[in-house]
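Action item from last week, closing it out:
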Amino acid sequence: MVIAADRIDFYESSGRVRGAFLDGADQVLIVLEVSGEEETSTTALRLGVSADGSRLTEYSESVEPFVRRRCPTPATSR
């Protein structure tokens, strides 16, 4: 998953952010227009960020929470 200011890219699809709403102290609800496999739909994605920013948890009503870990930032060359 790659998160930018206006979109979220997944393995086989991408979503343009249509809205973002705070949901409590540590969760956000993101409304996405998702395109993939020649289809487009609107969906909501609920995410929680750990206090140290190293983990992102995706919440869903149909499956257990899925925890993602931040990739290390590549060293900058000088």
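Closing note: The first strand starts at residue 2 and ends at 3.
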